[in-house]
Amino acid sequence: MTRPNGLAYQKAIELMQACATEDGFLASPTERSNYRRIWARDGVIMALAALMTEDPDLTDTARRTLERLAEHQGPHGEIPSNLDAATGRVSYGGTTGRVDANPWFVIGCAEYWHRTGDTAFIDRLRPAIERVRFLLGAWEFNNRGLLYVPVTGDWADEYVHSGYVLYDQLLYLQAQRAVAALHAEVVGSRDHGLLDAVSRLSHLIRANYWFNCADEIPPDAYHEVLYRKGLEAAPHCGNRYWMPSFSPSGYGYRFDGFANVLVSLLDVADDDQRARVDDFISAELVRDELPLLPAFHPVIEPVHEDWEELQVMFSYTFKNKPYEFHNGGLWPMLTGFYVVDLARRGRTSEAERFLDGIDRANALTIDDEPWGFPEFVHGRDLTPGGTRHQGWSAAASIMGHLALRGQPLFTIDSGLLGR
């Protein structure tokens, strides 16, 4: 494979190398709060980028990341949110656990195995994977196919959404695909029950998170009355983007950047839905000065009814001021997944435009040092924010550059399952 030789790509590789330790990828080499730890979510995203590079050292660090997470698996099968290998301190979450750490772990293990053919690795980790699979099934609570995510239960850990969150359902879908592929390849037979679950979850996502503004209730509606109420309240977003979540109290209506990218990247969306989301992103979200995607849109301001809830939703200090972090902050990491999706859909010029946004964001100066690789960029002022030298911001650049050269991010997809 011909690797990019541009400055932005090389700086990203250097930061990934700086994050690499004998125990796996640190979220950041910066000495700040919990960032100098191995995080399941960050670590797997960095591992996916590392596998795309085909660099043996980075690939080996990807393996060690997954092995350390498995070694600290909790008593019920839960994968750590993060761990400090030096001190042995392990966290499974804050006020609630982190649901998304678990499917990310399964996805990472399967991708490492599928790319490397390391059967010894997968033989060692299959018991951990099966325990995660069981735990995720239990987190459906009512055995109806969707994960229930508590408040602060995923990457938006200080934001106001919960319930049946689309982002987590998409990770759950990919994790189920991964386990099905592992079973078919390692055991030598198909798990038809799991394949049925994959198909069922795909239908549930399509039926419950996209409002086409028709009067008909889809056969797979999770709750008919709830769906009808959500549809009636969503004229501004129906047929424009995927709904972020729903719960017994109703639907959420803000644009969830990660979910709307993954639903296309994982081939749940059809081409018309992709085009509508692309149009919404172009018309409503993107700043020409620095094209990056926000975590959520629109921004929650002090005048909004959600503000009171948002401003008490933190563990140590309030971070979600308007246009910061998940409240309208712009994320290089998230935009990297969009670049991958655009590239594989043949939308090369758009992919290059957003990749340029990632690389320019990564080059921003923090504390008088260029190439700060910020966690996010302020959605209005376009200034760097959060902790610097974020490994997954580097991973975003690597993913984008290599996707434009034809490298896939996910090698396990629905086509591999033979259905």
Automatic annotation (TrEMBL):
Pfam families: Glyco_hydro_100. One of its GO terms (molecular function) is hydrolase activity. It catalyses: Hydrolysis of terminal non-reducing beta-D-fructofuranoside residues in beta-D-fructofuranosides. Keywords: Carbohydrate metabolism, Glycosidase, Hydrolase. Its EC number is 3.2.1.26. Belongs to the glycosyl hydrolase 100 family. This is beta-fructofuranosidase. It comes from Thioalkalicoccus limnaeus.
